[in-house]
Amino acid sequence: MTSQANKTLRIAPSILSADFARLGEEVRAIEAAGCDLVHFDVMDNHYVPNLTIGPLVCEAIRPHVQIPIDVHLMVEPVDALIPMFAKAGANIITFHPEASRHVDRTLQLIRDHGCKAGLVFNPATPLEWMDHVMDKLDMVLLMSVNPGFGGQSFIESTLPKLRAARKKIDDYAANGGQPIWLEVAGGVKTGNIGKIVAAGADTCVAGSAVFGAPDPDGGYHGVMRALRTAARWAGV
Ligand code: DX5
Fold first, then answer.
1. Residues whose CB falls within 8 Å of the CB of residue 83, separated by 6 or more in sequence, listed in order
2. Does ligand 1 lie within 6 Å of residue 17's CB atom?
3. What does each of the 236 residues of the chain score in pLDDT, given as a tens digit?
4. From the CB of 205, is ligand 1 less than 6 Å away?
């Protein structure tokens, strides 16, 4: 059993799979269904081969929910967008270390604007990028797909990488370090969330699994219950 047993599991639906014509309604519905974060995927058609949403959309959904907005920047360069998202109401901002020339400075910039800061690891990106900035991390996001699209299949080799990240974070905490959330994004479903949590994740992003399974009344209570039940089998 991993050391994060008995900790609450955070579920963060990715609005990339939501109905953009009704985004305010959609985020209110996932909050009402008990999700913990709104996951906000930002793509610039440069760092990744897709183009999605920016600070204006973050500002538009902010008044609709109380829960934190978790902004994942798949952009290059990174720094200029940080003050804009902080002003737009983001609570957490994560970025890819390969997209910043000065990772330590970019993490500090996020914290200087009052947000939690984090690094994102593509499937092939080594975890060692975090070794010299652990003190500036509030979140580590492991991508279990190559970033750029929702609805892709979970890459199984993420599981041993998750265990390694969990060990790094727990060892750091055991030596007096601050808590660091361990998030996974890409292909998370009711069928695999149990093994993902058992491998060490405490925060799970789910896009198509949530927005692809609305209740008859348009809410998301059913799928949120199903995800939490499946995770409970992993002892959380
Ligand atoms: C992919 C994004 C993920 C994605 C998750 O680049 O970073 O957050 O939207 O969507 P699903 O759960 O459908 O894989």
1. 109, 113
2. yes
3. 344 444 589 999 999 999 999 999 999 999 999 999 999 999 999 999 999 999 999 999 999 999 999 999 999 999 999 999 999 999 999 999 999 999 999 999 999 999 999 999 999 999 999 999 999 999 999 999 999 999 999 999 999 999 999 999 999 999 999 999 999 999 999 999 999 999 999 999 999 999 999 999 999 999 999 999 999 876 55
4. yes
Nearest atom, ligand 1, residue 146 CA: 6
Pocket test for ligand 1, best of 205, 211, 224, 227 (most atoms within 8 A of CB): 205
Calculate the dihedral angle through the C-alpha atoms of 222, 192, 38, 72, rounding to the nearest 10 degrees. Answer: -160
- For residue 118, the cross-strand partners are 94, 139
Q: Give me the phi and psi of 22, to 5 degrees please.
A: -135, 45
What sign does the CA torsion over 5, 41, 125, 132 have? negative
Q: What is the edge-to-edge ordering of all strands in the sheet holding 69-74?
A: 10-13, 203-206, 181-185, 139-143, 116-121, 92-95, 69-74, 38-43
